[in-house]
Amino acid sequence: MNITNKEWEKWGARDPYYGVFSTKEFRKGKLDKESRRAFFQSGQSYVQEILVKLRAHIDPDFQPKKILDFGCGVGRLVIPFSRIAASVTGIDVSESMLIEARKNCAVESIENVKLINSQDDNLSAISDCLYDLVHSYIVFQHIPIHRGECIFSSLLARLRPGGCGILHFTYASVASNTIPATQKIKTWLRNRLTIVDWIICLRRELAGADPEMQMNAYNLNVLAMKLQTLGVMEMFIEFAKHGDYFGVILYFQKPRRTAN
Question: 3-253 adopts what CATH topology?
Fold first, then answer.
């Protein structure tokens, strides 16, 4: 298993709700009935908001029947997605997260959700599936850039012609408005030397710290090139901020016909 995947499995086993949404009220020791309700209500509100924006800027008649949520965690967004689509597929690298998501779906008597543990960047577990909506939020930032770009391409391949994507990426540190030099060096080493990942994670574990939660900044030019190569000619960009990083949410539609 990839080291990054292992760290997220630790989050799933130790503190799954905080791992998904890093707010202190969602810590395992503090999670109660009220904070749990707030956790899932935030997901419901988010789904309503992004669909309004997608219809306002990309496709006013968009009504997804099949939805893919990449990095679904404990089901915060899968559950509201299940109420607007015929079927929803949630993918995550943490089996512990998926176990919790299955419990949450069962509580809501939701039967149109399929939850899949997918460890490879090619998303081979869904290689024969196409979706009307491909979605991911506050996920890619925790994935090493070289892996994230590969997964981005895999998600685009899973989008049916005419289908839409809503994907979130971080792109810069708030403090410097760019990628810090130390972060660039660290990312470069981790992308090329697995042992660097292993040492960083081991040191945290020996110190009794939380599992690592990477924050990676993506090159938006690379993402834009992948979309334009796909034939996407229009895109709506919403700026976002998560922790100490600036980000964007990309809204786009895959052409119904292949571009010449």
Answer: Rossmann fold (3.40.50)
